[in-house]
Design goal:
The chain is of the alpha/beta class. Helices cover about 45% and strands about 15% of the residues. The strands form two sheets. Strands 1-4-5-6-7-8-9-10 form an eight-stranded mixed beta sheet. Strand 5, helix 4 and strand 6 form a beta-alpha-beta unit. Helix 2 runs parallel beside helix 3, helix 7 packs parallel to helix 9 and helix 9 runs antiparallel to helix 10. The protein is globular and about 55 Å long. The protein starts with about 20 loop residues before the first strand and ends with a helix. It binds iron/sulfur cluster. The site of iron/sulfur cluster has 10 residues, from helix 1.
Length: about 300
């Protein structure tokens, strides 16, 4: 049924880098919804997954034309809009590009969905105007990925990245500090760096694991990982440990053309730059934080806090 609402439907979450983009909701929620460290869509009120009709989404694009006629970039959500299918996604992308003169169209994408679509479909998406995908890699360590029920493997990510590069679609990976916990942090970071070195994505965006619960402001919801913490099967990383993780990650990354960003307010140290040119400077910035007096560092960790 076609919705004829006056306002376009809002996304639940978007990448910080898409703050100026037209936000187009193609699907609702996350179909996978199994990652132990997440559960964020149900926590924010989107408990089920659904695919919107092409007519509904086109109607939203018509509304956006009135609201944001000069927008230059666009982002499709929610968590994995490619679940709408290549035909529907492409029809919406082509329509958007007829209505708006946008320079960039991006979306969130699960590596497992891209893997299922295969190379030919990825080329079709590129032809329909998709320029960049935001992929939650989180870790390059198979053990960490399995424990966290991420539903992807390094092998899958390697293959998908090759197809994306051949199709000319940029890759933006998200890496989650703290995901290996205190016991596996070195393995988590070293294998993540090795996978990134192999793939050389255009972007790596660094995040810190944040466990929402009663004390962190989302009423009635709790991150599924809390259960493992209570059972003793996951020991959360310390604040300082996550800074050391970031340092190790940068130290292990080669001088790639990849742009690294810490574009989330939960990161304790915010560095950014291209690995090829700025890696040493970024490492020096982290080191200059780590030599501050301990009380100063602790005060900083408390000040940064945790928020969505
Ligand atoms: S991390 Fe992404 S794929 Fe995993 S449950 Fe959350 S939204 Fe879904």
């Amino acid at each position: 049924m076609t919705s004829q609402k006056d306002m376009p439907e809002m996304l639940t979450i978007r990448p910080p880098s898409e703050w100026r983009s037209l936000l187009v909701r193609v699907t609702r929620g996350c179909k996978w919804n199994r990652c132990r460290f997440c559960g964020i869509y149900p926590a924010l009120g989107q408990s089920s997954f659904s695919i919107r009709t092409v007519a509904e989404v086109k109607h939203d694009i018509d509304l956006l034309r009135l609201l944001r006629p000069s927008a230059e970039t666009a982002f499709f959500g929610d968590a994995d809009p490619l679940e709408a299918g290549v035909d529907a996604f492409s029809e919406i992308a082509v329509y958007l590009r007829q209505v708006f003169l946008i320079k960039r169209l991006t979306c969130y994408a699960r590596a497992s969905t891209l893997y299922r679509l295969k190379e030919e479909s990825i080329h079709l998406l590129a032809r329909a105007g998709l320029n960049r995908v935001h992929i939650g890699l989180e870790s390059g360590d198979p053990e960490t990925l399995r424990f966290q029920r991420k539903g992807l493997s390094p092998k899958m990510v390697r293959q998908v990245s090759q197809w994306l590069k051949q199709a000319g679609i940029e890759i933006s990976f998200y890496v989650l500090l703290g995901l290996g916990g205190r016991d596996h942090w070195q393995q988590h970071i070293e294998k993540t760096a090795a996978l990134i070195n192999e793939i050389e994505p255009e972007f790596v965006r660094i995040r810190r694991l944040w466990l929402y619960g009663d004390e962190t402001g989302i009423a009635g919801a709790e991150c599924p990982l809390w259960r493992e913490i209570r059972a003793g099967s996951f020991i959360p990383q310390t604040a300082e440990g996550s800074v050391l993780e970031m340092r190790l990650l940068l130290a292990r990354l080669d001088r790639l053309s990849t742009f690294v960003a810490c574009d989330h307010q939960n990161n304790y140290v915010n560095v950014s730059g291209t690995l090829k040119e700025d890696r040493d400077e970024m490492l020096a910035e982290i080191d200059s934080f780590l030599v501050l007096p301990s009380e100063e560092r602790q005060a900083h960790y408390e000040e940064v806090g945790s928020q969505i």
